[in-house]
Amino acid sequence: MELRHLRYFIAVAEERNIGRAAARLHISQPPLTRQIQQLEDQLGVQLFNRTPRGMELTPAGELLLDEAKNINAVIEQATERTQRAGQGKFGRLDVAIFGSAILDTIPRLLVDFRKAYPDVKIVLHSMQKDEQLEALRQRRIDVGFNRILTLSPDIAAELVDTEPLFLAIHEDNPLADQASIDFNMLADEALILFPTGGRPSFIDKVLGLCQQAGFVPKIAQEVGDAVTAVSLVSKGFGASFVAKSTVALSLPGLTYRPLRNVPGSTKIDLSCIYRRDDRSPILAAFLEVVKSNRNRREAANNESQSGC
């Protein structure tokens, strides 16, 4: 039995007339009649009673009609799902997340992608930078998010956002009384640095800024991530440099201040990384959402600055 047999059978069964079914299928009557006879021969049963009024279904024909409609519906669904998958509108996207961006930037990006592609299942994996690179090469994830990247030939990156640097500080610290904090005033401040994972990392960014300012930072603790760092800050354990995304995290005793007179760039890049040879339509769709979000933020920032 071939799919065309079922399509011809459904048309005849619904029209109850060979002539009308042939017109519906845009074929002539003789080949349609031969196809129905061929189907009956293959099944070894009579599907229609030929009467002066037309084609009447037999009990076997009635059963086949139900089954044929179910099969046809499954085929149509499979066709549509395949086409949507080819357009990046259906399937699965495995995303590795890590760091302070999960507090703000990444969730907003994932929500925008889900709104645009509701039939793509997003699966999140918590992985540090080295784990993300390994998982990408092993094809266990499709995309990751991280900062301070050193890329290899097989890994590509797309800029997601550029965030200013802030200082997380306990509200009882005298520096918290200032609207912004001069970077050089941090030479004697106990600092909590993160992350302790693969290098180069955000730690190296902070150490480089301190070196340019002419002092060696007093490191109170190195921890794995921004959440742990600001949790310690909220208890008065020290201060910590953080990206703007972290400001979304509020804890008792914790406050944030912008920095001034920073010797180098106060901007921290967040990028998504992916396999350079990945031609997945879903990945391409995700990267378009990333670019669209970035362009929209840049336009809003430019408008805000011009308004000032």
UniProtKB/TrEMBL annotation:
Cellular component GO terms, alphabetically? Answer: protein-DNA complex
Q: Which Pfam families match?
A: HTH_1, LysR_substrate
Q: Where is the HTH lysR-type domain?
A: 1-58
The entry's keywords: DNA-binding, Transcription, Transcription regulation
On whether Thylakoid is a keyword of this UniProt record, the answer is: no
**What InterPro entries would the database entry show?**
LysR_HTH_N, LysR_subst-bd, WH-like_DNA-bd_sf, WH_DNA-bd_sf
**What PROSITE patterns would the database entry show?**
HTH_LYSR
GO molecular function, one example?
DNA binding
Task: Name the coiled-coil region(s).
Answer: none
Family the UniProt entry places it in: Belongs to the LysR transcriptional regulatory family.
Q: What is this protein called?
A: LysR family transcriptional regulator
Species per Swiss-Prot/TrEMBL record: Stutzerimonas stutzeri KOS6
